[in-house]
Amino acid sequence: MLDLYILETCPYCRKVMSFLSENNIKFHKFEVSNKDNIQKLLVLGGKEQVPFLFDEDSNIKMYESDDIIEYLKSLKQV
Asked: Could you tell me the pTM of the whole model?
């Protein structure tokens, strides 16, 4: 399953969420305005930066909206 750490007001986060929605890709959304989610983000990625994607199935962790979208595109081809 894909976990996406976001801040609703972040345009880069909205960009990734739009791609996910347009391509019917299921994911869990974690809003970092929640302190518990910030702690999870820090444990997984090491910094307070969003968007952050964690692919539990392949243990892939990444920041940067464009990189995340390219990764998601590669998943759709499999």
From this structure: 0.93
Helices 65-77 and 11-22, interaxial angle, to 10°? 10
The size of the chain, in residues, is 78
Contacts of 64 (CB under 8 A, 6+ apart): 12, 51
User: Burial code of 5-39, b = ≥16 C-beta within 10 A, e = fewer?
Assistant: bbbeebebbeebbeebeeeeeebeebebeeeebbe
* pLDDT confidence bin for 77, thresholds 50/70/90: low
Do 42 and 24 form a contact (C-beta atoms < 8 A)? no
